[in-house]
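Researcher: Quick test of sequence recovery. Tokens follow.
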């Protein structure tokens, strides 16, 4: 049997402890499957004394993750600390420079520095693997780079932040407002240390930036994404959308348009009977469409100790088997820079607004939309008061700039009593 694959693990929190538990519990299974023993040489975290619910006595301890990354008895550096810069970046760079393979779950690091890391790794002839960085336990990186390698990818979509999906589905099922469910998430410990990473769409955007690179052969470029969070979604939007057969999701979508790549992580409406529409709670879903395969749907836990550690272990097992691939599926130097479409592909839109209830008010709004070439598919009024009429409009496909123009023009009609809310309807 070949010599053991020796790991150095930096970060012993939720994911790091989970990985060590799997290695301790499933050692025989891993050896049988990979033909090689996987061992841990050394570990690192900030606090040496903390009880992590896992036995660490057999492993050497390093206070400094960079020193750990360079140790002679480490073949693979496993980075599970987090953060786009600081010790995670320093240690990954040190590991690559020292000729070690790297496994990480760090989406922020890869979304911001992925291109430089990939180029450095490939010039040193080492692997960097990151299955856990996108959608936790769902093996979507492997699906794209390996199982779907023979396809031209036409679109990738995903609900990739469990916290946002929990908030949106809980608002719907319990009729609670955003602030109440947000507070609930704080109590449950669901939120990132900086909650804007979750609710601002940034964490999910990091994941989409990584998927885009693999799906479309482009350099990772988080800044090329259009990102909008869920903070402004109201219970009213959720209820009205549900009444019309839709669910609100923080949805990542990336596809090529005639003008370039349209990649965005924004709140969208999806049909309630679609797989994305049916996705409840903290679960994630990644939908991939290829020219030969058609559409495939991957669903599972996007976070948590077991699922995330499972994905990290998949990468470690691949390295134990000797599998080696370019970091983003093709050599990093051949990845193209993203030509951002600027304007997203046209789509139907959900528009909610309140009008002053007087003769001709609705006609004025319809005329403004017509002036911008936007056709109305469905429309209804609900919850009249003596003076005001809330109105819902679903348009046929329209480009966002035309819609924005129409909204500006609505303000000049004198019948608008609230700022219109526009949510894209994604055809899934
Ligand atoms: P935790 O906060 O639970 O753990 C982070 C660990 O890193 C801790 O053990 C901490 O040490 C250690 N650490 C932090 N800074 C340093 C440092 N300067 N030197 C040495 N060790 C340090 O994070 P998670 O386990 O939740 O996440 C780890 C990574 O996995 C992140 O990149 C995250 O985005 C990613 N991820 C997490 C998921 C999840 O469900 N938790 C899902 C998908 C990805 P100490 O314990 O002593 O404070
Ligand atoms: N905050 C993330 C989520 C954790 O809610 O999905 C997993 O990346």
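Model:
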């Amino acid at each position: 049997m070949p010599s053991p694959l020796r790991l150095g693990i930096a970060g012993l929190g939720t994911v790091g402890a989970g990985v060590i538990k799997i290695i301790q519990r499933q050692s025989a299974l891993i050896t049988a499957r990979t033909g090689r023993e996987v061992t841990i040489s050394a570990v690192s975290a900030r606090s040496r004394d903390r009880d992590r619910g896992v036995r660490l006595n057999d492993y050497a301890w390093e206070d400094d993750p960079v020193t750990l990354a360079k140790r002679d008895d480490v073949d693979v550096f496993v980075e599970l600390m987090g953060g786009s810069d600081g010790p995670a970046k320093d240690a990954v760079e040190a590991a690559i420079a020292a000729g070690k393979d790297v496994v990480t779950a760090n989406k922020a690091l890869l979304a911001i520095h992925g291109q430089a890391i990939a180029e450095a790794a490939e010039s040193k002839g080492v692997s960097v693997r990151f299955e856990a960085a996108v959608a936790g336990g769902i093996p979507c990186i492997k699906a794209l780079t390996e199982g779907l390698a023979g396809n031209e990818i036409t679109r990738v979509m995903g609900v990739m932040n469990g916290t946002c999906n929990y908030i949106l589905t809980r608002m719907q099922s319990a009729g609670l407002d955003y602030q109440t469910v947000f507070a609930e998430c704080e109590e449950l410990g669901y939120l990132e240390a900086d909650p804007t990473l979750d609710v601002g769409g940034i964490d999910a955007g990091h994941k989409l930036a990584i998927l885009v690179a693999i799906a479309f052969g482009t350099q990772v470029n988080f800044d090329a994404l259009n990102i909008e969070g869920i903070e402004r979604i109201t219970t009213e939007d959720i209820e009205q959308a549900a009444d019309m057969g839709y669910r609100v999701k923080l949805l990542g979508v990336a596809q090529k348009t005639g003008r370039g790549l349209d990649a965005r992580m924004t709140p969208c409406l999806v049909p309630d009977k679609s797989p994305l529409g049916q996705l409840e709670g903290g679960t994630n879903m990644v939908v991939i469409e290829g020219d030969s395969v058609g559409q495939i749907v991957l669903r599972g836990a996007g976070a948590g100790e077991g699922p995330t550690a499972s994905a990290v272990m998949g990468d470690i097992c691949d390295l134990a088997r000797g599998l080696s691939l370019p970091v983003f599926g093709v050599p990093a130097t051949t990845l193209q820079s993203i030509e951002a479409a600027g304007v997203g592909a046209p789509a139907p839109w959900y528009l909610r607004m309140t009008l002053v209830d007087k003769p001709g008010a609705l006609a004025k709004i319809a005329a403004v939309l017509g002036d911008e070439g936007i056709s109305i598919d469905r429309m209804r009024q609900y919850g009249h008061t003596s003076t005001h009429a809330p109105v819902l409009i679903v348009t046929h496909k329209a480009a966002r700039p035309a819609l924005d123009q129409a909204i500006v023009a609505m303000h000049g009609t004198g019948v608008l009593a609230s700022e219109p809310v526009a949510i894209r309807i994604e055809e899934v």
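The chain is about 35% helix and 25% strand.
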